[in-house]
């Protein structure tokens, strides 16, 4: 392997940047592909996009009858929870079992304690102060759970501008309507705002914090694993969310 190519591949991995190393089996020719490099002129365009979604490496057939091996590197999916609340306490272990890294952020030190969150990463800070540390990206899901605009609004706007694969916010339709007014005034576009999962979670009639956590995790997994075309766009009911 070309050492410069290897260095670029390793830099992408360490920087949480998705990349695919394409190696032609016959010739040994290699190229490194980032998501922004894929165009319709690339004969492997559809396959490359699918592999970035699945994260799976493997052999593919080429148009000339040859084969190429795709070495796929995508960042591990993670969840950032804004609010050290009861729902977060239930969601952290569920998400970790499902393979997500989890970070909980809440400036309220009465809630953000190691006793309540012994696992995962806990930041007892204002979200606005740790945005650089969080490094939100398209492989991150952000969930806002505090009901407090002073805590939730900044990370919600940051998640939308960072292309997080899932952005959800707890609250009734009335609460979400007020949130819309604030975020649009702060510069969020209507289309971006409408991508927020609210009322949050799958419509399963969830009532308890643990049930709401299940509903939220279900929608996070659906956002990560399902193609946009396969997702339902039917309006959701209130689903028992507060």
UniProtKB/TrEMBL annotation:
Pfam families: XdhC_C (PF13478)
Database matches in InterPro entries: MoCofactor_Util/Proc, XdhC_Rossmann_dom
Name of the molecule in the record: Predicted sulfurylase large subunit, molybdopterin cytosine dinucleotide biosynthesis
Domain XdhC Rossmann: 80-220
């Amino acid at each position: 392997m070309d050492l410069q190519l290897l260095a670029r591949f390793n830099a992408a991995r360490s920087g949480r940047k998705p990349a695919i190393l394409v190696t032609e089996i016959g010739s040994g020719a290699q190229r490194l592909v980032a998501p922004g490099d894929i165009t319709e002129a690339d004969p492997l365009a559809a396959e490359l996009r699918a592999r970035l979604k699945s994260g799976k490496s493997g052999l593919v057939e080429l148009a000339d009858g040859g084969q190429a091996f795709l070495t796929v590197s995508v960042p591990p999916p993670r969840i950032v929870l804004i609010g050290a609340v009861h729902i977060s306490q239930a969601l952290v272990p569920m998400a970790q079992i499902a393979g997500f890294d989890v970070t909980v952020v809440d400036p309220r030190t009465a809630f953000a304690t190691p006793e309540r969150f012994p696992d995962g990463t806990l930041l007892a800070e204002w979200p606005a102060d740790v945005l650089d540390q969080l490094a939100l990206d398209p492989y991150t899901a952000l969930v806002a759970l505090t009901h407090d605009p002073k805590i939730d609004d900044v990370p919600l706007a940051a998640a939308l501008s960072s292309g997080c694969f899932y952005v959800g916010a707890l609250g009734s339709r009335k609460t979400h309507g007020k949130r819309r007014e604030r975020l649009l005034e702060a510069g969020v576009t209507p289309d971006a705002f409408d991508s927020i999962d609210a009322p949050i979670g799958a419509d399963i009639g969830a009532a308890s914090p643990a049930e709401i956590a299940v509903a939220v995790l279900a929608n996070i997994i659906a956002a990560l694993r399902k193609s946009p075309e396969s997702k339902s766009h039917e309006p959701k009911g209130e689903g028992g969310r507060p």
